[in-house]
Amino acid sequence: MKEKLFILLCCLAGLLACHRPAPKPDPVKLQDPEVVHASVKRLTDVIVYDIFSPPVASRIYAYASLAMYEAARFGEPKYPSLTAQLHGFAPMPAPDPDKQYNFLLAGARAFQVVARKVTFSTDSLKLFEQQLYDRFHAAGIDDEVFTNSIAFGDTIGAAILARSARDNYRESRGYPRYTVDRIKGSWQPTPPDYMDAIEPYWNSIHPMVMDTCNQFQPPAANKYDISTGSRFYTEMIEVYNTGRQLSPEQRAIASFWDCNPYVMHHTGHAMFATKKITPGGHWMGIAAIASRQSKADYVRTAQAYAFTAVTLLDAFISCWDEKYRSRVIRPQTVINDLIDPKWEPLLQTPPFPEYTSGHSVISSAAAVSLTRLYGDHFAFTDTTEVEYGAGKRSFISFRQAAEEAAISRLYGGIHYRSAIENGVQQGTGLGGYIVQKIKVDAGAQLHKGDYSAK
Predict the structure, then answer these.
(1) Is the dihedral of CA 150, 153, 158, 164 positive or negative?
(2) φ and ψ at 119, to 5 degrees?
(3) What is the per-residue pLDDT across 289-343, written as a single tens digit (0 to 9) for each?
């Protein structure tokens, strides 16, 4: 009888165990890096929709990504503050040791606080933010932890925005309109719409790592000289001939790295525009691919975005400083005037001076930073441009991707070779400086790599 009773009790215990609800996850330890990825992706969509220029987009990415990281990093003590190593930032607030937080949620909140302030389409961001919070609530986050995390994110976001208010961006919006120089060889607006020069005063934006905007000033551009055999003429003819005999592979490379945020199309009297990701946005996409492929946790993922974005901002400042110092004329203008009035480059020429190549500078710099985080032989397939119709390409390293991005501008017909090669040197030098100056891990260095330009 006792044996039967024991068996019956065991069966009842088993049934109760089967119907017992599963324990909820610890709300402090919800650590899905996809929250970080989704936040940056939504920001990229807003940047594309709002048609921010490449330099301005780099600033948006930098401040928003830093906000995410500076809040999220408290989830892993080994990660140091980045803003403490950058110019112009006050010390970041610290969490209250007597309170519990979900630092991923705090980072997501800080990101949104900054993103809404530095963009236009805030409704899209607000909708995404609410969906993000619903996700945390569905996972069972404690109300007190949720409130603490949101409040901490607010304080980090405010601290980041305080620096953004002092970087001269707002003041530069009121500077005089750029006046086109009519001196022979100076940049002129280009077809089809002869748009005004973009961000002629970007070198007045305060850099984050560089001491001055011209710290990595490249060699002087080739002197404008249209006599046969001169360096300028030789490079101009190379652009012309290359554009007339492009291989299918060269066309694919040029199109893949186009990254022109606003391309105008003319069909008879009809006009329409297509919007695309910026060059900086493309490299933020590569940072996403590397982070996912390496299975980085949410703090390392946030750091990869922030480190890449800071590099991009300084690279644009450095490049734009040279562009409006040298004011080199675009190949299309010279070729149409002297060689072939009907010649058109494969890609639409962007509205700013030619030297140095922005793609070359920012891609080379970003490649160095990503190498610092993920290694010198990090093979990956770049799918960033799939949604914009440009397919995907595979690379054996970040450096190889940067080199292809650089030479794509020759295939696209919008840069001379010296602007590309000197731009690579400029960006590589800047990237090397950043990775040597900024500590990304409290322990041993992750990947020293080879940061010399080749």
Answers:
(1) negative
(2) -130, 180
(3) 999 999 999 999 999 999 999 999 999 999 999 999 999 999 999 999 999 999 9
Does the N-terminal peptide bond of residue 200 adopt cis geometry, omega within 30 degrees of 0? no
CB 39 within 8 Å of CB 68: yes
Q: DSSP string covering 138-161, please?
A: HTT--HHHHHHHHHHHHHHHHHHH
The fraction of the chain above a pLDDT of 70, given in percent, is 88
pLDDT at 441: 84
Closest to 280 (Cα-Cα) out of 319, 332, 331, 253: 319
**Predicted local distance difference test score (pLDDT) of residue 7:** 46
Same domain for 345 and 203, yes or no, is yes
Give the number of other Cβ atoms within 10 Å of residue 242's Cβ: 18
382 φ, ψ (degrees, to nearest 5): -85, 110
269 within domain boundaries? yes
Encoded tokens for 216? 């990595």
Q: Which two tokens stand for residue 81?
A: 């503050």
Bridge-based pairing of strands 380-382 and 393-395 is: antiparallel
Whichever domain contains 331, its CATH number is 1.10.606.20
**Do 221 and 155 belong together in one domain?**
no
Domain contains 184: no
> What is the model's pLDDT at position 15?
42
Backbone torsion region of residue 121, taken as left when φ is above 0, otherwise alpha when ψ lies between -120 and 50, otherwise beta: beta
User: What is the 3-state composition of the chain as percent helix, strand, coil, each rounded to the nearest 5?
Assistant: 55, 5, 40
CA distances from 169 to 47, 130, 174, 401 (A): 17, 29, 9, 31
pLDDT at position 269 over 80: no
Average confidence score pLDDT of the chain: 90
Give the separation between CA 452 and CA 74, rounded to whole angstroms. Answer: 34
Q: Which residues, including other chains, have CB under 8 Å from residue 176's CB and lie 6 or more apart?
A: none
Query: Hey, what are 349's tokens?
Result: 């020429």
Is-contact 265 272, C-beta < 8 A? yes
Residue 235 lies in a domain: yes
Structural domain range at position 225: 193-437
* Cis amide leading into 212 (omega within 30): no
Q: Same domain for 160 and 205? A: no
* DSSP codes of every residue in 220-247: PPPP---STTSHHHHHHHHHHHHHHS--
Q: How many domains does the chain have?
A: 2
Residue 63's alpha-carbon distances to 44, 66, 104, 156, 212, in angstroms, are 13, 5, 17, 11, 19
16 inside domain: no
pTM given for the model: 0.91
Tens digit of each residue's pLDDT (9 = 90 or more) over 343-378: 999 999 999 999 999 999 999 999 999 999 999 999
> Which residue in the block uniquely carries the two structure tokens 């940067």?
402
